[in-house]
Amino acid sequence: MNSSPATLNKAKTTKSHEVVWQRWGMLYLRLALGVSFLSGIADRFGLFRGRNVGYGDFAGFMKYTAQVNSFMPASTIPFLAWAATLAELAFGLALVLGIWLRWAALGSFILLLLFGTAMAISFGIKSPLTIRCSPLRGERLSLRFTRRGSERRSHPPTCANIPC
Fold first, then answer.
1. Over the chain, what is the mean pLDDT?
2. Residue 67 within any structural domain of the chain
3. Which of 1-5, 56-60, 71-75, 156-160 comes out lowest in average pLDDT?
4. Angle 120-40-77 from CA coordinates, rounded to 5°
């Protein structure tokens, strides 16, 4: 076993570089996820204009909510639309601001899991597997199990299913 000072110093340097890259990666991931939630909020309140607008206004979002939750009574659609909007706003802000990260990551994982399940029920199993929310559920769960500092992860993130 080679435990010379040079070997030990190289191991420490490599480990510290890993920690730095993990921190940068988690920062990027956290900001990308938070901004994606906030972008959806901006779209549904008409802040985006042009060709690549998803809903355009809240009425368009309510219509889409009714399609995704076609198995639910019509009277629940306004509640579901507002609950999703408030949850996305809270999770998006928490992720961007860096507060309550574990809870925001877990909550957004659950929110997108529910969204994917509703899509599977309403549109078929292929629908939630081909859109962006499927890989994002894994990213959010990765954020949930990532520890601060130089501590190891409880669950290593995977990016095998994230489109590049």
1. 77
2. yes
3. 156-160
4. 55
